[in-house]
Specification:
Number of strands: 0
Strand content: under 5%
Mean pLDDT: 82
Helix content: 55-70%
Number of domains: 1
Structural class: mainly alpha
Largest sheet: none
Low-confidence stretches: none
Order of helices and strands: HHH
Length: 64
């Protein structure tokens, strides 16, 4: 998977967004979600993906 064209990158990003929804809905664990993101971090920009911890930090909860 060294030569990834723009179309493949879009497909990977779309698949990751679907996986993000599975995580948000509680069907997969945070560990699994982060592991999948880590696997594809060099193919797509993963900065737009957020975990529940990120949402808690945005709300200002310092205990998380």
């Amino acid at each position: 998977m060294n030569n990834i064209d723009h179309g493949q990158t879009e497909n990977i990003y779309a698949a990751l967004k679907l996986i993000e929804q599975l995580y948000t809905d509680g069907f997969i664990s945070e560990y699994m979600f982060l592991s999948i993101l880590d696997k594809y971090k060099f193919q797509v920009d993963i900065s737009s993906f957020k975990t529940k911890r990120d949402f808690t930090k945005e709300k200002g909860d310092v205990n998380s």
